[in-house]
Amino acid sequence: xxxxxxxxxxxxxxxxxxxxxxxxxxxxxxxxxxxxxxxxxxxxxxxxxxxxxxxxxxxxxxxxxxxxxxxxxxxxxxxxxxxxxxxxxxxxxxxxxxxxxxxxxxxxxxxxxxxxxxxxxxxxxxxxxxxxxxxxxxxxxxxxxxxxxxxxxxxxxxxxxxxxxxxxxxxxxxxxxxxxxxxxxxxxxxxxxxxxxxxxxxxxxxxxxxxxxxxxxxxxxxxxxxxxxxxxxxxxxxxxxxxxxxxxxxxxxxxxxxxxxxxxxxxxxxxxxxxxxxxxxxxxxxxxxxxxxxxxxxxxxxxxxxx
Length: 307
Fold this sequence. Notes:
The structure is a single chain. By secondary structure, the protein is mainly α. The protein has one domain (15-223, 240-245). It is 75% helix and 1% strand. The protein contains 13 helices and two strands, in the order H-H-H-H-H-H-E-E-H-H-H-H-H-H-H. It has helices at 2-8, 15-40, 48-65, 71-95, 100-119, 131-135, 146-164, 166-176, 178-183, 188-214, 225-235, 247-266, 273-306; strands spanning 140-141, 144-145. It has a two-stranded antiparallel ribbon. A hairpin with a 2-residue loop joins strand 1 and strand 2. The longest helix is centred in the last third of the chain and has 34 residues, at 273-306. It is globular, with a radius of gyration of 20 Å. It starts with a helix and ends with a helix. The model is unreliable at 296-301 (pLDDT under 50).
């Protein structure tokens, strides 16, 4: 895709521009890491963008009211708020056995409503935020903004967690075959709960990074962004049925959407085509994954018959 874009606009693949594209994609990449583990457990979290928006609004309001609050406290507050909202989702799925899509649709609406209540529908603008608050994600270290470095670190941690920890293997086991997972001693509900907590924590972190980077907080922050997050996972090969996919695939899925979003205006295509392209990519990815799974199943059956 990059080669095709470069053929029409060579400046797009300049190192400086690619850094900007990656930085623009970093919030999506961070949220997609959390969504990946949720989908791996046969669940879905549609409240991530609302979680982001509520946490971001609270962080912005606290900074505007108390500019002297240390940045570390703001970051800790964002992480804790996000984790609590993720835990609420996880507990309702685990303890009340409510379908994840119903739970997260409900909490998504609740969180959006809470934003309006606490803010009164008003914005928190750049002049109300401290320089330290807005400057952190924009600071450049070794040629990359801190926001990009955070996305890289989160992706690296999730790669290690999935490949090298018992919790990472549990996500696959629970999503691949919940009944078999129970017989191996895994608590399916508890595993799904921790997936939601991870997703919520990253959404909270992204909430602060979002409002600090754009220097504005309002009711409809990241409206509809949850669909892009799910799209990044599915396009990257994460099976919507759970139990299959890789973190690397999710990274590539997020980069795909990030490049499409930034490249369409450059090559003269209306940005309104972005949703159509993303939707088509989702359908194609799901169809490809489904057919691949059926083919593997037939191969296994044929080998069994031959044996």
